[in-house]
What does this fold into?
Amino acid sequence: MAFLKIQRLVLAAALSLTAWILLGQTDFVPQQTGWHIRTYKYTPSSFDWANRTQSHPVDEASMTRLPAGDPRPLPPIQHQFTSEELSESHNNTQRERRNAVRRAALRSWRAYRDHAWGRDEVTPQTLVGRDTFAGWGATLVDALDTLWIMGLKQDFRDAVEHVAAIDWDKATSEACSLFETNIRYLGGLLSAYDLSGERVLLDKAVELGDMLHAGFDTPNNMPANGFHFAQAKAGKLVASLNEASAAAGTLSLEFTHLSQLTGDPKYYHAIDGVKRALERTQDSTNLPGMWPVFIDLQSSFFTPGTSFSLGASSDSAYEYLSKMHALLGGLDPAYEKLHTKAMATAAQHLLFRPMLPPSSPPTTDILFSGTVLSNGKIIELIPEVQHLGCFAGGMFALGGRLFHNASHIAIGEQLARGCAWAYTAFPTGVMPELSSIIPCNTTTQCTWNETAYQTATTAHGTPHRPPPPPFTAVLSPGYFLRPEAAESLFVLYRVTGKADLLEAAWGMFQAVEKATRTRRAYSAIADVGVEGETGRVDSMESFWIAETLKYFYLIFSEPELISLDEYVFNTEAHPFRLPKPGVKQ
Ligand SMILES: *[C@@H]1O[C@H](CO)[C@@H](O)[C@H](O)[C@H]1NC(C)=O
Ligand SMILES: *[C@@H]1O[C@H](CO)[C@@H](O)[C@H](O)[C@H]1NC(C)=O
Ligand SMILES: *[C@@H]1O[C@H](CO)[C@@H](O)[C@H](O)[C@H]1NC(C)=O
Ligand SMILES: *[C@@H]1O[C@H](CO)[C@@H](O)[C@H](O)[C@H]1NC(C)=O
Ligand SMILES: *[C@@H]1O[C@H](CO)[C@@H](O)[C@H](O)[C@H]1NC(C)=O
It folds into this structure.
């Protein structure tokens, strides 16, 4: 992740019983049968956002609808695994690895279940509940699809029973983040619905979608990320003058999927306005092709900013461009153009090869994505390595497949391997949140320059501990259980079929498991440079089960489990089912 009513079909008891038996017998059921199973009592929220009077309504006639036509066949995304490749890489070794990941997920889930049920998070050391995302049970909703995929069906059922009674009108805070609520809660519900067909999940998604849709009820219909409940009810929200581009660009998949599942175009219409603003501004920013990290949404998408990155606060705005192309079955050409131009600019200006010590194997062919400062004339690369930016490998590879650009698949692999390498460079085997390193002058080669290394290291002042070469500084030494590096290894493995990526992922999982394990769960750590108990931070965010452990589990599973040819992942690792080619929405 990054930085953010329907009629009821009551099935005959016998039918739903049969469905549950069928569902319970397999490890995963990727088929949505068209049966809407209802086994839970649905309790509607106490406020109906769908019936709120809008301050800035869109009239029915001018509403943008989902693109008409039959979804096109997309190019194959996954590597065509041969039976030899499958039997070699999916033998007992992978099964044991996948079970180790499942055990980690189960420990984490049980700690949450036993000590924080219904709260947003469990604190992994002190084992109490904490509300960090409005108190609707962030970990519970975020974990639903992981539980399903891992075959933890009883845990899934217990969680759905709780979800069926969530009241979005009972929040523990006055406001929530539109972005976070969208990716964790709405994304979690939609994906769990796609996988299980359980109707109550869609009912709750619609309630929540109706609430979040009020985030677009602003004077210019741009989204207000600071979703203040009372102001939203009164229709007084205003978009921010200085908003993270990710907050604007990371609503599209979820809103589109909600329109696909309900047939109601209002969600899709809302995010299509953001797309048009992205199109309108793409060529006229200070780094044409990309958008600044922060955007003035209040002045209708004004983009004077000078900082550009694929990391914090802008990441998933880029991630969603190619994914929207896929979710719309290739029917909106705008997303391909947006993606292609953005990636060409990123490849030219943001990506760099790090200067590596002479001891590194000459085959270490890696790239990182940095930050660029540009005023339109002078372009300067800041060679910072963000853990959040590690998703970019997967993004380049997916786009490379969707839009037939082999060099982008190669770039994706170099980026994914870059983050995997960075993990191994630190004492715990885990990469820090933010570090810096020396860029080579070209993306193809360079040799170690000790003078340059010493100069750059000194320039960062005197840290309490020198950074491990070749890093010149560790600017934020923690690891917060983040998924992005595992995510890119997963995508690259599925796309290329290269078996050594499984070994890299296993090394990464073991290091993370060891460095973050607590008595009952797993916790963020304060410093990846220090081994042992000392540096624990008492936090286990919902993305640990939702994303990190899901990607590790999937990479060690058969490639058909949540195939990238059938699903597209939202930025919180929630798989949404892609439309079937030729089948009308
Ligand atoms: C909105 O309210 C009206 C009357 O109060 C009701 O008939 C209608 O079903 C409500 N719509 C939704 C979507 O709940
Ligand atoms: C089993 O998988 C491991 C890890 O991918 C691989 O190294 C090994 O060769 C495989 N064993 C067999 C018998 O295929
Ligand atoms: C792949 O993308 C690059 C921009 O990064 C572009 O220069 C190149 O022409 C593209 N290749 C193909 C085959 O489209
Ligand atoms: C890049 O080129 C500059 C100027 O020639 C040189 O000072 C610097 O050391 C080079 N950097 C690397 C990593 O080779
Ligand atoms: C090594 O780096 C120093 C300082 O950046 C630079 O002056 C020098 O030219 C570099 N040497 C080479 C061979 O690039």
In short: The CA atoms of residues 115 and 127 lie 6 Å apart. Residues 3-35 have pLDDT under 50 and may be disordered. The chain is about 45% helix and 10% strand. Residues 92-116 form the longest helix (25 residues).
